[in-house]
Amino acid sequence: MKHVLLFAVTVMLSLGKAVAGEPQRITRADCRLSFSVPAELSYIEVAGAQVSNDELCYIAFDYASSAGNKHSQNLPPIPDDWRTQVDFWVTIKKVPLDKQIEAIESAGGGSQGGIFSLDSKVRANPVRGDGYVFTYSYVKPTASMLQLKQSREVVFAVGDRWHSAVYYLYPVGADSKQRTELSVLKRLFSSFAFDTAG
């Protein structure tokens, strides 16, 4: 692990290198979670980031093809600037999974008030915990969605009775890059093992 950036507010990013040929297994006691990092991703440790009342922690990633390009820059000392330095992050919340599912399935959740229509709801089968992958297609696309060729929405929801993570993905087009991204995220979330002790 290599410490790359340290703010006065103790926000720190470090880049984890996976061992060739096998997924890197990460244990985050502060998140009550462990997970495996697919070979296509690099895990970025975020320590000391500010969280809201219902949030437990963040786990952040770069796609391996872009790893190392963003972390040489010196950033202004603002706590949330780490978000601009990673490709994506997942928020672990102190919210039970069933509450998250209710929110996703509500009128203002995954369907976003009728913009999307549910195509499928499939179990995510994490290592420990439970979860689903929701797939939607648009029925009332906005102008920006048409311009960006965003025809789908995929929602990953995993967790247990105490904690959960929800991630919204909006694939652009249907090329091999998007299929790879979807495959990587499915493997990432299926590797989640929540600390069921609460």
Structural features, described:
The protein folds into 2 domains: 2-93, no CATH class; 97-194, no CATH class. Helices cover 15% and strands 38% of the residues. The protein has helices spanning 97-105, 143-148, 176-190; strands spanning 2-6, 12-16, 24-28, 33-37, 41-47, 55-63, 88-93, 116-123, 130-138, 152-159, 164-169, 193-194. The longest helix has 15 residues, at 176-190.
Describe the oligomeric state of these chains in a short phrase.
single chain
Helix content: 10-25%
Shape: globular
Strand order of the main beta sheet, please? 1-2-5-6-7-11-10-9-8
Short description:
The protein is α+β, with helices and mostly antiparallel strands and 198 residues long. It has helices at 97-105, 143-148, 176-190, and strands at 2-6, 12-16, 24-28, 33-37, 41-47, 55-63, 88-93, 116-123, 130-138, 152-159, 164-169, 193-194. The protein is 15% helix and 38% strand.
Distinctive features:
3 helices, 2 domains, 12 strands, alpha+beta, nine-stranded antiparallel β-sheet, three-stranded antiparallel β-sheet, 198 residues, 38% strand, disordered N terminus
Q: Which helices and strands occur, and which strands form pairs?
A:
Elements: E1 2-6, E2 12-16, E3 24-28, E4 33-37, E5 41-47, E6 55-63, E7 88-93, H1 97-105, E8 116-123, E9 130-138, H2 143-148, E10 152-159, E11 164-169, H3 176-190, E12 193-194
Antiparallel strand pairs: 1-2, 2-5, 3-4, 4-12, 5-6, 6-7, 7-11, 8-9, 9-10, 10-11
